[in-house]
């Protein structure tokens, strides 16, 4: 007998005008949210630049970010090493300054620091070298975090990051690993130049 009661219960249910109004409001809100999502997706897929719209999407930029970060860091490290080399070359000439008395005197360490300032200056005792050295490792931390997030997103089946480039993931992986060598090389150059 109970199967008859359950079988009869499958008829459509009328929730009344209050529930149907709420259902209509929810459907309207969903359509507004869907439109906003499409607008955001379109904005992320085409970027405005001074030269016009770029046909590169947000996903592609996220994949390229670690490579661009490494390039920027390598360029800054190169400028740091060049400035340190310049200053060492400059100091080989034993620069002097002329006092008000007309006597030539050697430059002090503070004056040398002012002639070619460096982020990490071995001649400047007033610098907090530990903090400045730690700041130099921030780009490496950002690089490792971004690569880890990219690899993690590739493990998610519904991830849109790199969706169009699944075939290229091994190439990106090789590029990320080889670019890590550039980071290490840049740090080694900074350390070698700093210790000379």
How do you describe this structure in short?
The chain has 196 residues and is mainly alpha-helical. The protein is 66% helix and 6% strand. The chain has two domains: 17-50; 56-195, no CATH class.
Structural account:
The protein is mainly alpha-helical and 196 residues long. It has 2 domains: 17-50; 56-195, no CATH class. Helix content is 66%, strand content 6%. The chain has 7 helices and 4 strands, in the order ααββαββαααα. It has helices at 2-8, 17-45, 58-91, 109-115, 129-136, 138-155, 169-195, and strands at residues 47-49, 52-54, 96-98, 104-106. The strands form 2 sheets. The chain has a two-stranded antiparallel ribbon. The protein has a two-stranded antiparallel ribbon with strand order 3-4. α3 packs antiparallel against α6 (138-155) and α3 packs parallel to α7 (169-195). The longest helix has 34 residues, at 58-91. The chain is elongated and about 100 Å long.
């Amino acid at each position: 007998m109970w199967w008859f009661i359950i079988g009869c219960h499958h008829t459509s249910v009328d929730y009344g005008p209050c529930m149907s109004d709420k259902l209509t409001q929810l459907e309207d809100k969903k359509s507004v949210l869907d439109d906003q999502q499409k607008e955001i997706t379109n904005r992320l897929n085409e970027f405005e630049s001074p030269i016009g719209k770029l046909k590169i999407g947000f996903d592609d930029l996220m994949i390229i970010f670690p490579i661009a970060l490494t390039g920027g860091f390598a360029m800054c490290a190169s400028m740091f090493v060049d400035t340190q080399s310049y200053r060492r070359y400059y100091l080989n000439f034993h620069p002097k300054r002329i006092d008000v008395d007309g006597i030539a005197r050697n430059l002090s360490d503070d004056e040398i620091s002012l002639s070619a300032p460096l982020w990490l200056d071995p001649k400047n005792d007033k610098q907090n070298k530990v903090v400045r050295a730690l700041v130099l490792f921030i780009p490496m931390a950002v690089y490792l975090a971004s690569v880890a997030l990219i690899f993690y997103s590739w493990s998610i089946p519904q991830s849109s990051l790199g969706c169009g480039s699944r075939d290229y993931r091994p190439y990106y992986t090789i590029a990320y690993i080889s670019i890590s060598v550039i980071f290490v090389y840049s740090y080694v150059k900074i350390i070698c130049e700093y210790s000379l």
